[in-house]
Design brief:
This protein is α/β, with parallel strands linked by helices and about 325 residues long. About 30% of the residues lie in helices and about 30% in strands. Helix 1 packs across helix 2 and helix 5 runs parallel beside helix 6.
């Protein structure tokens, strides 16, 4: 039974190398009664890897925890940490999350490859007309621009590509994120820390005293944050943020539900983008992903605005994806 340090390190290296080969976004190490299940999230869906012998479970999970300075003696409470890792040509940010289960600690390793932080707007998958509308929206000097969609729909990637597009040495861009997913050159990024009391709302208030031109707020989660974002927009700042809504027109409804007055929404929202990620089709199954988008200037649909479904079907007609894949990512209400 190989249970020495070198053997466990080699096993972890093998799992990480497989994740890179698959271009996985996450690795799941899931304790089962008989073995340790290994799964990789590829293009949004989980797939099984080689299971690990139960005798190696504890040592492997301890090895992961040591890498990110987690408490290996504490297995009853969730923990999380992060580290930078270079594997071959890949510079990775690893996010580690542990969770106690009845068969041992489950670990999820999120792999953030820094090269994905440098996607341009043109590489996201927006149709030419939508891209031109979006570029017009983001050229505004003040107001709020929202990107909406469920978790894992690529909202942060869109925002990072947007900030890279409009960044220049003449302006001050400050972000507040949970967590900071990628480091962007020339941009001031803040990570919230709830334990220390640095919430979105508190961070946003502090940012406003830092003479910003453009603010990127990871997510508008509550009324307090929404109010400060509106105030920032009214006082001459351009604010980018995300919301969890199914489509672009629902963004205004969501803000109303939070408690923001309709006239303030009308006065500040410059545009809303809704998006999903679809798997691109190829002759040997799906490979890679592209976005489908709904780009809405202002707060209500304009004539000719392409919906998520229409953009998805356009991608089908172009041979980029399949009808089945569009149906999979769009829920019935979409």
């Amino acid at each position: 039974m190989e249970n020495n340090g070198n053997g466990i390190s080699a096993l972890l290296d093998e799992i990480l190398a497989k994740a890179i080969e698959l271009q996985a976004s996450d690795i799941h190490l899931e304790p089962r009664e008989e073995f340790l299940r290994v799964r990789y999230r590829v293009d949004g869906l989980l797939q099984d890897g080689n299971p690990v012998h139960k005798s190696k479970q504890s040592a492997l999970i301890s090895r992961v925890k040591v890498l990110v300075n987690l408490d290996i003696a504490e297995s009853r409470l969730p923990q999380d940490g992060r580290m930078d890792l270079k594997i071959g040509r890949h510079n990775l940010d690893l996010r580690i999350s542990t969770l106690p289960t009845i068969h041992g600690e489950k670990v999820v390793i999120r792999l953030l490859d820094r090269k994905h932080a440098h996607l341009t707007l043109e590489e996201l998958g927006m149709e030419k007309e939508d891209l031109e509308i979006y570029k017009t929206i983001i050229s505004k000097k003040n107001g709020i621009i929202l990107v909406t969609g469920p978790t894992g729909s690529g909202k942060t990637t869109t925002l990072y590509a947007t900030l890279a597009q409009i960044n220049s040495k003449e302006i001050n861009i400050v972000t507040i994120e949970d967590p900071v997913e990628y480091q962007l050159p020339g941009i001031n990024q803040i990570q919230i820390n709830n334990k220390a009391g640095l919430t979105f709302a508190r961070g946003l208030r502090s940012i406003l005293r830092q003479d910003p031109d453009i603010i990127m707020l990871g997510e508008i989660r509550d009324l307090e944050t929404a109010k400060i974002a509106v105030q920032a927009a009214l006082t001459g700042h351009l604010v980018f943020s995300t919301l969890h809504t199914n489509d672009a027109p629902s963004a205004a409804t969501r803000l109303l539900e939070m408690g923001i007055e309709k006239y303030l929404i009308e006065a500040t929202i410059r545009g809303v983008v809704a998006q999903r990620l679809i798997r691109k089709s190829s002759t040997h199954g799906y490979k890679g992903r592209s976005g489908i988008y709904e780009v809405m200037p202002g707060i209500s649909p304009s004539s000719g605005m392409k919906t998520l479904l229409e953009d998805g079907m356009s991608k089908v007609e172009q041979g980029i994806t399949t009808r089945e894949e569009v149906a999979r990512v769009l829920s019935p209400e979409d």
